[in-house]
Write a structure and sequence with these properties.
There is one protein chain. The protein is an alpha/beta fold. The protein is 20% helix and 21% strand. It is elongated.
Length: 192
């Protein structure tokens, strides 16, 4: 008998009798005050959340949050404070040095502060190379949990998409938290 057969014989000798799996009940998280919950979780993950007041201009908010920004990249028509339209660039490396990238989110998740982003700009590098990222999000597009995410139509129809939750961070080296390690150092979600 070869070593493979020997191992299989020994495994069969020590097999555990199968037991019936217990019934599993699961109640997904539901939040009753979405704006408060999203702001709380965004802060917990190191991000910032601004709820746009009626009549408040998104460009004014961007300029107030990032007053020193010289390079603001966005292809969104409502973002008139943008100094660069990333879709007009020939090479994504031209986005290097972008102070603020402004993009649109499809929906936000209340349980973890993530925002689902579909690529609507020529270069997805904008999501990660900008020093700060501003995500415009419809306040009526907040879902409670990841279970509801999978039911969203925008989650099935995209070429490239990603979840973004606060600024880039890592804590894998000596258990020290580093913000901005692999992407934006700051993320602000503006709920419209």
């Amino acid at each position: 008998m070869g070593s493979k057969e020997d191992i299989l014989v020994r495994l069969k000798k020590h097999a555990v009798d199968q037991v019936e799996r217990p019934e599993r009940t699961f109640e997904p998280l539901i939040f009753f005050d979405p704006l408060v919950q999203f702001e709380k979780i965004m802060k917990a993950v190191g991000g910032n959340c601004v709820v746009l007041e009626k009549g408040q201009d998104v460009n004014e908010v961007i300029r107030n949050v990032f007053p020193d920004a010289k390079s603001i990249a966005s292809n969104l028509p409502e973002v008139t404070c943008a100094t660069v339209n990333p879709d007009t660039l020939d090479d994504p490396r031209e986005l290097n040095g972008t102070d603020v990238g402004v993009i649109r989110g499809d929906f936000g998740i209340l349980e973890n502060g993530m925002v689902w982003i579909n690529q609507r700009t020529r270069y997805k590098a904008l999501f990660f190379i900008s020093e700060a990222l501003v995500i415009l999000l419809d306040r009526n597009r907040l879902v409670n949990n990841m279970h509801e995410v999978y039911k969203q139509p925008a989650f099935d129809d995209f070429g490239y998409g990603c979840f973004i939750s606060g600024p880039s961070k890592t804590a894998d080296i000596e258990q020290a938290l580093v913000i901005g390690a692999h992407g934006a150092r700051a993320v602000t979600v503006i709920l419209e």
